[in-house]
Write a structure and sequence with these properties.
This protein is mainly β and 506 residues long. The chain has three helices and 31 strands. It has helices at residues 14-21, 158-161, 492-496, and strands at residues 4-5, 55-69, 72-79, 88-91, 95-102, 110-113, 137-143, 148-154, 167-173, 184-193, 243-246, 257-259, 264-271, 278-282, 287-292, 295-303, 305-308, 313-319, 325-330, 341-346, 388-395, 403-405, 416-418, 423-430, 436-440, 445-450, 453-461, 463-466, 471-478, 483-489, 500-505. It has a six-stranded mixed β-sheet, with no helix packed on it. It has a six-stranded mixed β-sheet with strand order 22-21-24-29-26-27. A five-stranded mixed β-sheet has the order 1-7-5-2-3, with no helix packed on it. The chain is globular, with a radius of gyration of 21 Å. It binds CU-O-CU linkage and copper (II) ion. Residues 111, 113, 153, 155, 311, 439, 441, 486, 488, 490 line the site of CU-O-CU linkage (C2O).
Length: 506
């Protein structure tokens, strides 16, 4: 499984591929158009690769001048010169070979978030591969599964590289019929930026995602106990995020979403932010949540707005039944003004300016983990063993840059030793004052309980937001994918501070 090519090798010569794989029948490079993917006929537009073939995709990590909004130009770090990078769209079980060329001034790697890749393809420097040095190339190869809205991003010094734009959607279409058909879809990647050009926004401390739902009723999930008053940096550990983007653009630069009356729309929402939970709302419409981190619910759940923590994804649908022009936006105070809004424009209503967003979530019914019922999509356990682990998340108090699991900072944290086929239980207890979106590599898990309350039916995820101030979450997964898997908070500053452990599946 050594895929590294020496730096002086010729960059992606077809000959080289053939000699690496010893097979012909490679399909050609396929990249879909940007972060916003439009499919008039979902399920058909995905290019098929030749049977037995391998789809090839070339990604170049490089610095690019990027205009977030008129007058806000930054030096972004990009895949193929844009933010987000190119959306990769694959068919479930399809084999893909992704050639990463590093043209940055620093090493980098790519992690395929939510994809059950073989361990050496997981993109964790120092654990699953050596960092890809400047000028070098690395080939990732894996089968695309499970189906769902996934994403890919750098896993090298994410507090810098992820923040500069190294992320993109990765969509795996189900091999069978999609359980929730639709007429048109858009993928929307949310991000926060520290550009130094505006008033910094308070950081998301407590977490607004479903983690609070165990204790609270429908309408009041968010907006409480915000730390970091009006732009303070809360001890210095949070960069001063002042700009919010949807697909790499801040309003008014966001590209309007076109819809036609009567259509059923699917939105794939991906939160690539380092720090912020966003609460997505579409004026004039309710949203039906269909997938949690790419995994289907038994049936859609209708809400007014949807909190989405860093690294989470949700797929939602709505029926275009109120002609006009509306904003899709984040209801967190300050976020629409920082750019997090995009016009949804019905055919025949072009040029209309939607009504301004309404900030806040009082009186709205919000998505939370406890109101969905997930489908059984995880592999069955095989060993009869049920190891349990308790992980206490702490830090940020004595020293704002130290974040721990059971009192230890990575790499000194205790790994979780399990066997392939075990049914693994993990309880997170968050004794810190900030929420932690905890992400497991290599396999997804069920969320069983939140804040001590069992969910009526587990939902399937790969990231779960554990609420601040004594929030707890119980998860369970079948350890089906062997290897050493990173298991960490997805806020890069917290990772950097040590909130990482390893699930060691032997
Ligand atoms: Cu999305 Cu370890 O990351
Ligand atoms: Cu954290």
């Amino acid at each position: 499984m050594e895929h590294q090519i020496a730096p002086d090798d010729r960059w992606i010569s077809r000959r080289r591929f053939l000699s690496l794989t010893g097979q012909a029948g490679l399909s050609t490079l396929v990249l879909s158009a940007g972060g916003s993917v439009l499919l008039a006929r979902p399920g058909r537009a995905a290019e098929s690769s030749a049977a037995g073939g391998v789809r090839e995709i070339a990604l170049v990590a490089k610095e690019t001048r990027w205009e977030l909004a008129p007058g806000k130009v930054i030096k972004a770090w990009t895949y193929n010169g844009r933010v987000p990078g190119p959306a990769i769209r694959l068919r479930e079980s399809e084999r893909v070979r992704i050639v990463l060329k590093n043209e940055l001034a620093e090493p980098t790697t790519i992690h395929w978030h939510g994809v059950d890749v073989p361990n050496p393809m997981d993109g964790v420097p120092g654990v699953t591969q050596a960092p890809v040095k400047p000028g070098e190339t690395f080939i990732y190869e894996f089968e695309a599964r499970p189906a769902g809205t996934r994403w890919y991003h750098t896993h090298f010094q994410e507090h810098k590289q992820l923040d500069l734009g190294l992320y993109a959607p990765l969509i795996i279409e189900p091999a069978d019929r999609d359980p929730f058909p639709y007429d048109r879809e858009y993928t929307l990647v949310l991000d926060d930026w520290a550009t130094g050009t505006g008033r910094p926004l308070p950081s998301t401390r407590e977490g607004t995602a479903g983690a609070r739902g165990g204790m609270m009723g429908g309408g009041m999930g968010g907006m409480m106990g915000r730390g970091g008053m009006g732009g303070m940096m809360g001890g210095g550990q949070h960069p001063a995020y002042d700009t919010m983007t949807i697909n790499g653009k801040a309003y008014p630069a966001t590209e309007p979403l076109r819809v036609r009356k009567g259509e059923r729309l699917r939105l794939r929402l991906i939160n690539a932010s380092a720090d912020h939970t966003h609460v997505i709302r579409l004026a004039g419409h309710r949203l039906q949540v269909t997938h949690t981190d790419g995994n289907p619910l038994v049936k859609p759940v209708e809400v007014d707005a949807l909190p989405i923590a860093p690294s989470e994804r949700y797929d939602v649908q709505f029926v275009a039944d109120r002609a006009g022009a509306w904003f899709l936006y984040c209801a967190e105070p300050g976020h629409p003004g920082a750019g997090e809004q995009v016009a949804v424009v019905y055919e025949g209503h072009e040029g209309r300016i939607p009504e301004a967003p309404i900030e806040g979530t009082i009186d709205l019914s919000l998505w939370r983990y406890g109101i969905g019922r997930g489908r059984e999509v995880l592999p069955a356990p095989t060993t009869g063993r049920q190891p349990e682990f308790s992980l206490t998340l702490s830090g940020g108090m004595m020293n704002p840059d130290v974040w721990t699991i059971n009192g230890k900072q990575y790499p000194r944290t205790d790994p979780l030793p399990v066997r392939r086929g075990d049914l693994v239980r993990v309880r997170f207890s968050n004794v810190s004052m900030e929420a932690h979106p905890m992400h497991l590599h290599g396999q997804s898990f069920k969320v069983l309980a939140v804040n001590g309350r069992r969910l009526p039916a587990p939902i399937v995820k790969d990231s779960v937001d554990v609420a601040a101030h004594m929030g707890t979450v119980d998860i369970e997964f079948t350890a089906h994918n062997p290897g050493d898997w990173f298991f960490h908070c997805h806020k890069p500053m917290h990772m950097e501070g040590g909130m990482i452990t390893l699930a060691k599946i032997a």
